[in-house]
Amino acid sequence: MTQDLLKLMRERIAIGLEREETKDAIEGWERTAQLTLKEGSEYHFVVKDNNITVHEGLLENPDMRIQSDEVTIRKLFLEEMSATSALFKRKLKVKGSTSDLMKIRHIF
Length: 108
Description:
- Helices cover about 40% and strands about 25% of the residues.
- It is an alpha+beta fold.
- It has a single domain, classed as 2-Layer Sandwich (Nonspecific Lipid-transfer Protein, Chain A), CATH 3.30.1050.
- Strands 3-2-1-4-5 form a five-stranded mixed β-sheet.
- A hairpin with a 2-residue loop joins strand 2 (about 40-50) and strand 3.
- The protein starts with a helix and ends with a helix.
């Protein structure tokens, strides 16, 4: 399931990067985020040079830490659930600065 989820995230990020709203949100923004799934898989995101990439594995000292489960992450990337909804339902936990938290919705 890991490769399938990684492929989905990469495809949906590519689609998101075509949106002006996403481009504007990440303009000049450089951050890293660690995603840990309850199922045990770990991924990290790198926002740099007006691009977003996702990779398998751990990242030392990420700017943000995200915890969730695979079903929720799939729903977020397929736009079947909003990050706000996932946060309120406690399906998504994010630790980072307030300004970073406001921008993270453009990744999901």
